[in-house]
Design goal:
single chain, 82 residues, Beta-lactamase Inhibitory Protein, Chain:B, domain 1, 4-stranded antiparallel sheet, 29% helix
Length: 82
């Protein structure tokens, strides 16, 4: 929470799905076992920052561990970057 959009993109890469609303952005990252939802709102410096996050299981699976989900998404991004 509180991370700016640039920091999130450096860690996780571009979102798999994004939606721009007049006052907010919605980003979704999907992994084999989990889905990360980020809600970003304008910050005082002209950018946007994460103000809310949710993690859920994919396809009705068991509740994922938040740290494992974010680590898996970060590892996927690092592997894609080479």
């Amino acid at each position: 929470m509180g991370q700016n959009s640039r920091t999130v993109e450096r860690l996780l890469g571009k979102p798999d799905l994004s939606r721009q609303e007049p006052s907010a952005e919605f980003w979704q990252y999907t992994h084999a076992d989990c889905v990360l939802f980020l809600f970003l709102y304008p910050s005082g410096n002209g950018g946007s920052e994460v103000s809310h996050a949710e993690i859920s299981a994919r396809d009705g699976g068991k509740d994922p561990d938040p740290h494992q989900c974010i680590s898996a998404l970060a590892a996927r991004n690092a592997a894609a970057a080479g």
